[in-house]
Amino acid sequence: MEEKRYIGVEISKTSNILKRNCMNSDLTKKINEATGKNSWIIGFIAQNSNKDVFQRDIEEKFSIRRSTVSSMIKLMEKKGLVVRESVAYDARLKKLTLTPKAWEMHNQMLLNLDEDEKKLKQNLSDEELDNLFKTLEKIRKNAEGEV
């Protein structure tokens, strides 16, 4: 008799392995201030450095609640990774800007990410990767009730 498999369990196990690998990497040990989603936020702001990035952009991009993002940004400010700056066109808005310290971390993270992606993609064809990304997107939409 075949054991029943659950998508959520398999995704969770994979996520745990990826997190463990990330947390045990030399890069993470060197820059322990930017762990988990902080590094995602740094990457997102860096990728969008040609435009103003606001807290709501991070909420939307990563599907994180406002209160959670607010706490994360405050902590990142304390760590000297981001600064909030006023914008001329709306006094209520504060754009997020990376500090030189965060830019250095971002560049190191990119090198590490490229190495990790090579490892994860080995033995997978372009078609398999495309199907994987499409399937994961469908699963996310199902989980969010966007069917």
Q: In angstroms, what is the radius of gyration? A: 18 Å
What's the level 1 CATH class? Mainly Alpha
Shape: globular
What proportion strand?
Answer: 5-15%
The largest β sheet comes out as: 2 strands, antiparallel
Structural class by secondary-structure content? mainly alpha
Per CATH, which architecture?
Orthogonal Bundle
Secondary structure: helix percent? 55-70%
Number of DSSP-assigned strands = 2
Q: What's the short story on this structure?
A:
This protein has about 150 residues and is mainly alpha-helical. The chain has a single domain (about 5-145), classed as Winged helix-like DNA-binding domain superfamily/Winged helix DNA-binding domain (Arc Repressor Mutant, subunit A, Orthogonal Bundle). About 65% of the residues lie in helices and about 10% in strands.
